[in-house]
Amino acid sequence: MAMRFPLTDLLDEQESYNFLLKTLHPDGMKCKQGHALPPDQKPHDRRRDPIFDYRCRICGNVFNLFTDTVWQGSQYDCRKIVLIVRGVAQSTSTST
Fold first, then answer.
1. CB contact set of 29 (below 8 Å; sequence gap of 6+)
2. Which of 10, 49, 58, 87 is placed for a possible disulfide with 94 were both Cys, Cβ 3.0 to 4.6 Å?
């Protein structure tokens, strides 16, 4: 299955976040214990907009878009991660 990367849509940080959310968490974001993020939950930490941290209402774990993925702990923004993934998927260099 080939991945499509519509760059004109993904150059926006929020659109890149939305793409990564659908790609990394197709069933919705969950904490490390598997508890789903309620749709009405407010972020725990907003410093890295749009990559918000959430505190699980059940177990108290803090998690975000990159929790339990290869990007956990990354300081890259969503646009850069999308471009890196695009480069890997197309077997092109990701160096700048």
1. 21, 36, 37, 54, 63, 64, 65, 67
2. 87
Q: Domain range spanning residue 64?
A: 30-86
Residues 6 or more apart whose CB falls under 8 angstroms from that of 67 comprise 29, 31, 32
* The pTM of the whole model exceeds 0.85: no
Using CA atoms, how far apart are residues 58 and 75, in angstroms rounded to an integer? 27
**Residue 62 belongs to a domain:** yes
* Strand residues in 1-96 grouped as ranges (E): 54-55, 62-63
Which band of pLDDT confidence, cut at 50, 70 and 90, is reported for residue 91?
Answer: confident
Q: Cβ neighbours of residue 60 under 8 Å, at least 6 residues apart?
A: none
- Let me know: does 31 contact 59? Beta carbons within 8 Å: yes
Residue 4 within a domain: no
> What's the rounded mean pLDDT across residues 55-61?
96
**Is 21 part of a structural domain of the chain?**
no
Structurally, the chain folds into a number of domains equal to 1
